[in-house]
Write a structure and sequence with these properties.
With 315 residues, the chain is of the alpha+beta class. Helix content is 19%, strand content 37%. The protein has five helices and 18 strands. The protein has helices spanning 3-15, 58-65, 104-116, 202-213, 251-263, and strands at 32-39, 42-47, 76-81, 88-93, 99-100, 126-130, 133-140, 145-152, 172-176, 179-187, 191-196, 223-231, 234-241, 245-247, 270-275, 278-284, 289-294, 297-304. The longest helix is centred in the first third of the chain and has 13 residues, at 3-15.
Length: 315
């Protein structure tokens, strides 16, 4: 990534919960086994604590996730982490080395991994603990359909977080690169900036997304969605994901966008969010609680050379 983006990533990583350094040399023989899955083209590597008890540093994460110097992914899912409350612990690491509070696609992928490793069974309700909250999950159809209760969406500035007075951030103006948009801010455990548009293209997310992500209105940065209302049962979005960039699909982005469309009175409580990578079904409660349903796909199992996270490359 360009030096300016790397500096932003480093500043953000410094504000996230501590990521202990994994100090390895290329001659050390450490078993680093990853399972790779994708959810509608949004791909993650699952790394279990038993294969890597000490979590990577942000710099090492960037190298492992790099499409050319590493295994390549939109992030790392670290778990299951042992807990005493009956939940499966999960940490979600972005490819820029920062840590995400919550990821809808990442959660569904981790559910699929729990099924593949026989830790849960189809139709069994279980809970995952993320730093963005606890979510209830169920897996069906061999992992091709995963249902997640994502929690309640909030539009309040202090909760998102968003600068300014305590209010719901609805239809306010935001300006980047000399262009002003109307936006709605929301959180479903992680922050989102949703911008309704009439003409939706990938270039909107790719051009304006990097600048909206780091806009000072959002002290913890933000995910960005440009959204077009198709009808009362369908919306379409283009996504710029915080810490990952342009993304083919996102579960939390789908949840936030659907909630904003509902808040605007433009869609029904049950709708489909269409993305370049595919579709996610969203159900919205009267209290803006979100139920997300979507697929996952296994890609493979990888043994990574221990020299990858310590190679001398600038990423």
């Amino acid at each position: 990534m360009p030096a300016t983006e790397g500096n932003k990533a480093s500043r953000w990583a410094a504000r996230t919960p501590c990521l202990p350094n994994l100090r390895l040399t290329p001659n050390q023989k450490v078993n680093m086994r990853f399972a790779k899955y994708h959810a509608l083209g949004n791909d993650y590597l699952v790394l279990e604590p038993k294969d890597c008890p000490i979590l990577f540093s942000p710099e090492a994460i960037r190298k492992v996730c790099h499409r050319h110097f590493g295994l390549g992914s939109d992030g790392i899912l670290f778990g299951p982490i042992e807990r005493t409350d009956g939940t499966f612990g999960l940490r979600i690491l972005n490819p820029d080395g920062s840590e995400a509070e919550k990821s809808g696609n990442g959660i569904r992928i981790f559910c699929r991994h729990l099924l593949e490793t026989k830790r849960i069974q189809e139709g069994q309700e279980f809970r995952l603990h993320t730093i963005g909250g606890v979510v209830r999950c169920e897996v069906f159809d061999g992992g091709n359909r995963i249902r997640v209760e994502m929690g309640k969406v909030s539009f309040r500035a202090p909760v998102i977080p968003h600068v300014g007075a305590d209010r719901e951030v609805l239809g306010e103006d935001i300006t980047v690169l000399g262009k002003t948009f109307k936006y709605w801010a929301a959180t479903v455990g992680n922050p989102h900036c949703v911008i309704p548009v009439d003409d939706l293209t990938p270039d909107l997310a790719k051009t304006y997304g990097p600048h909206l992500e780091v806009h000072p209105n959002f002290p913890n940065r933000t995910n960005v969605q440009f959204m077009k209302i198709i009808d009362r049962k369908n919306v379409r979005i283009e996504i710029w994901e915080r810490g990952a960039g342009y993304t083919l699909a996102s579960g939390s982005s789908s949840s936030a966008s659907a909630a904003v469309a509902r808040k605007m009175g433009l869609v029904d409580a049950d709708l489909t969010v269409n993305m370049p990578g595919g579709q996610i079904i969203i159900g919205i409660g009267d209290d803006y609680s979100i139920v997300m349903t979507g697929p996952t796909t296994p890609v493979g199992i990888f043994e990574m050379h221990p020299g990858v996270p310590v190679q001398d490359v600038a990423v």
